Amino acid sequence: MNNTANYISELLYRYECIILPGFGAFLTRRQPATIQDGTNAFYPPQKLISFNSQLKNNDGLLANYIASAENISYTDAVAKIQRYVLSLNEKMAKGQRIELEKIGAFYTSVENTLQFEPLQEVNYLTEAFGLHSFASPVIKRDIEIKREVYKEEVEAIEEAIPLTFTPEKRRERPYLQYAAVAAILLGVGGFFGLKQVSDTNVSYNNKEWQKANQEIENRIQEATFEISNPLPAINLNIIKGKENTTTTTSEVSNTTTSGSFHIVAGAFRIASNADTKVQKLKAQGFNAHLIGVNRYGLHQVAYESYENRSEAVQALARIKREQSSKAWLLIKK
Question: Model pTM greater than 0.70?
Fold first, then answer.
């Protein structure tokens, strides 16, 4: 029994893009809580599902999840996905409507285009778990303020009891002058106090900005970049004299690789960091080496290199499982 649709449904709770290799990608978009004016219905926030038939390349997410869930190899998981996609394409070719449990339905329109109808009953937003839509009754306000009646009553009272106003002499209040002077002094003091606080905040922000830049720089040095379609590496050996002959030869031998399939462990901006990575991997028993500088100017380090593709795929699955899930396969022919 092929449970690929169930695995896709489980991954939609955690990720925004799930690619079914060879068929398309399921995308999720967050929608806030809404109110429908006509029915006074309240709907909780949710994830809206859409489908993009242009994204078909295998990113490894679904295959790795199936391999982990069913305790099978990565290659077997990829083969299982291929069989599932083949069965979907055969049903679509016959004009059948395909129902994916908890996801939605696929069908072919009159213009012979693939159409996707998402399932509305399932909410993949974990933050809204347990929330349901409900309708609120209309609030009716029957109390009306009769202004004209009140106006007539007030006018009748004024006619019966005429109001007279006597001017009042103001007394001099000298203490108000002192209060005004005190307010001015407090304002001036507050201005200088705020300026000092502002200068302190600016100095603190500058220090934090420098720390953040330094941390970003350190992470860039240790970053691993995954490139799906890398350009072939070009090694330029420039001999400036007898003094540089030995150095150039050692650099070339250090970047010499055997095989077209390389399992990449990382890419480093500084060459010394790449050399350190090579030594660590060699200490772990790998035949680690440099495989050149890519078009981004990063020094690439490989666990191993292979001539045979199947051997490289098997070794990649083992390294992902035992060493690092960030390892990937680079093909340089």
Answer: no
